[in-house]
Structure formats: structure tokens, C-alpha cells
Amino acid sequence: MLSYAQHLTVSWRAIRLDVLEFIGFIVLSTTLRVTFKQALKSFLTTFGK
């Protein structure tokens, strides 16, 4: 049986991991979206002439 402090530490670690994953997901998707838009723009300017 875990003590209360240990339980808090474990759940805090799990929450922190979830938050980090969530933030990482947001950053990754935003970066991908921006990169995709820039790539699309350069593609259109290259082949749209």
C-alpha cells in the first residue's frame, strides 16, 4: 500500500507527463501546420508562374 505522499508524487508525475505530451502535441501540430503552409506557398510561387 502506497503512502499518501507517494501516491501524490506518482499521480503528479503522471499528470506532468500528460501535460508535457499535450504541450508537445500542440507545438508539433502547430509547427507542422506552419511548415506545410510555407511549403505550399513556396510550391505555388515556384510552379504558379
Describe this structure in words.
The chain has 49 residues and is mostly helical. The protein is built from one helix and no strands. The protein is rod-shaped, with a radius of gyration of 21 Å. The mean pLDDT is 90.
How much helicity do the residues have? over 70%
Number of domains: 1
Sheet having the most strands: none
What class, by secondary structure content? mainly alpha
How many individual helices?
Answer: 1
What does the radius of gyration come to?
A: 21 Å
Question: How far apart lie the N and C ends?
Answer: 70 Å
The string of secondary-structure elements, in order, is H
What would the keywords be for this entry?
49 residues, 90% helix, rod-shaped
Task: Provide a concise account of the structure shown.
The protein is mainly alpha-helical.
Give the helices and strands, then pairings.
Layout lengths: L3 H44 L2
